[in-house]
């Protein structure tokens, strides 16, 4: 049985074969699920080598959507300039195919569970908060760390779409672990200038 997430990806691939897609069109086609689906599309490139210059725009759009979740919005909104961003067809096809590959893995672990948690208004807001925080870590200028918060964001996005309360709880733990890891990396970078001279003596 395919998840709703897989069905959305398949539909987007079919639409893409006919014409290039914009973020606004994806949001319009997917309604409330567009929040998590577009967030997943925006962060997926960070799992792989990506063209320079996209971190800022993609991160800003992801942060804007997740902040709306924190505020309790169920209808996503993007500024016209961002909503009209048209994915280049080759890039979009690569993006969606990669997302589908990731989805096949998530299909094995995600399904509707713990409905009281999954459908809670507060869980929706808290998911938005966690995604916002992980996005801040994602766009932080720490080299070679992009895939780490991306994994947490994708877990939260799929858990939200699939109403999987158990996966949400796991994602919260993953968010805490990622935060701790970034704290450790940040502390190590802060100490590095004072340690390097003694190392090379």
Describe what is shown at a glance:
The chain contains ten helices and no strands. The protein is mainly alpha-helical. The protein is globular.
Describe this structure as you would to a colleague:
Helix content is 72%, strand content 0%. The chain has helices at 4-18, 23-30, 34-43, 55-70, 80-83, 89-107, 115-118, 121-138, 147-161, 165-199. The longest helix has 35 residues, at 165-199. The chain is an all-alpha fold and 201 residues long.
List keywords for this structure.
mainly alpha; 72% helix; 0% strand; globular
Molecular shape:
globular
Q: What's the pLDDT, averaged over the residues?
A: 81
> Termini separation (Å)?
62 Å
| Beta-strand content estimate | under 5%
Structural category is: mainly alpha
What summary fits the major beta sheet?
Answer: none
Give the tally of β-strands.
0
Compile the SSE list and pairings.
Elements: H1 4-18, H2 23-30, H3 34-43, H4 55-70, H5 80-83, H6 89-107, H7 115-118, H8 121-138, H9 147-161, H10 165-199
Helix pairs in contact: 1-6, 2-3, 3-4, 3-9, 4-8, 8-9, 8-10, 9-10
